[in-house]
Write a structure and sequence with these properties.
Layout: E1 2-6, H1 13-24, E2 28-30, H2 31-41, H3 44-54, H4 61-72, E3 81-84, H5 90-102, E4 109-114, H6 117-125, E5 127-130, E6 137-139, E7 158-159, H7 166-180, H8 182-188, E8 193-197, H9 202-212
Parallel strand pairs: 1-3, 1-4, 2-3, 4-8
Antiparallel strand pairs: 5-6, 5-7
Helix pairs in contact: 1-9, 2-3, 2-4, 3-4, 4-5, 6-7
């Protein structure tokens, strides 16, 4: 299957993508991983992307599209893939359609993870990260540490990242509504969109997603 996963920040796309890709036996292709891999390997696209990032500029769509197309060419993606974070705007969605049509392929589904805006803010603004080990993540509501402000695992100080502050989260949501949300209508016109609630336990959301795709979790 060839699937695009969309949803606002805080919808749990990364978590769901990992579970869905495993259940469907297809690679999970995320924009973040693409950038990290290309930059660390020093590919021409990675070097170009880094030059924009180092200058504090946005990476052009052409670079992101190039990275995604290179990844979709790899052997493990021949039979299908799950795209997470790409396409993020209409230009990228149109480029993906053109690429797939050139290969005689098409998308099978676009999963739209739906979360109320207030819940997104609550999820992200409530996160607290350990200064000693950023893999230790807590939440003021959903995953409280035993001692407020202290990491259970290593005793490090817990803090709120700038990206997780409420005003920043709301700005990220504005960008999502302006740039990424239009691709949902673009794909809905093609009959590809399945909108599912991303509220509840991870397993419940995965079950809804698999059901929408016609399979079992």
């Amino acid at each position: 299957m060839r699937i695009v996963l969309v949803g606002p920040p805080g919808a749990g796309k990364g978590t769901q993508a990992a579970y869905l890709a495993k259940n469907l036996a297809i690679p999970h292709i995320s924009t973040g991983d693409l950038f990290r891999a290309n930059i660390s390997q020093g590919t021409p696209l990675g070097v170009e992307a880094k030059s924009y990032m180092d200058a504090g500029n946005l990476v052009p769509d052409s670079v992101t599209i190039g990275m995604a197309e290179d990844r979709m060419e790899q052997a493990d993606a021949v039979e299908g893939f799950l795209l997470d974070g790409f396409p993020r705007n209409l230009a990228q969605a149109e480029a993906l359609d053109t690429y797939l049509q050139g290969k005689g392929l098409k998308l099978d589904a676009v999963l739209d993870l739906e979360v109320p805006e207030d819940e997104v803010v609550k999820r992200i603004a409530g996160r607290r990260i350990c200064r000693k080990d950023s893999s230790h993540v807590f939440h003021v509501t959903y995953n409280q540490p035993e001692t407020e402000g202290v990491c259970d695992a290593c005793g490090g100080e817990l803090y709120q990242r700038e990206d997780d502050r409420e005003d920043t989260v709301r700005k990220r949501l504005e960008v999502y509504h302006a740039e990424t949300e239009p691709i949902i209508d673009f794909y809905r016109a093609q009959g590809l969109v399945a909108t599912i609630s991303a509220l509840g336990k991870v397993a419940e959301v995965t079950e809804r997603a698999m059901s929408a795709l016609g399979g079992d979790a």
